[in-house]
Amino acid sequence: EELFSQYDKVIVDTPPVSAVADAIIVAKKVDGVLFVVASRATNVDTAQAVIKSLSDSKINILGAVMTRLQRKDYRDLNYYYYNYKYSDDQE
Length: 91
What we know:
Elements: H1 2-6, H2 22-27, E1 33-38, H3 44-56, E2 61-67
Parallel strand pairs: 1-2
């Protein structure tokens, strides 16, 4: 609680959810989690089970990060671009 009162953002790194229960315990005490997966190393079934476990535990998944991408992996990815417009106008 002390860290949250002193800083805008606090990042906590935990062991993998699939390895130990610590990650779920910590995740319940924060505003949300980033789901990090390693390209070509994380089994799809394991990733889906982890997402289900997080969801079942009512943990807010903020997004996902894929690590260890290799150049040849880029051709298999689809990129979507969105245009956002920010305005001070209140309509």
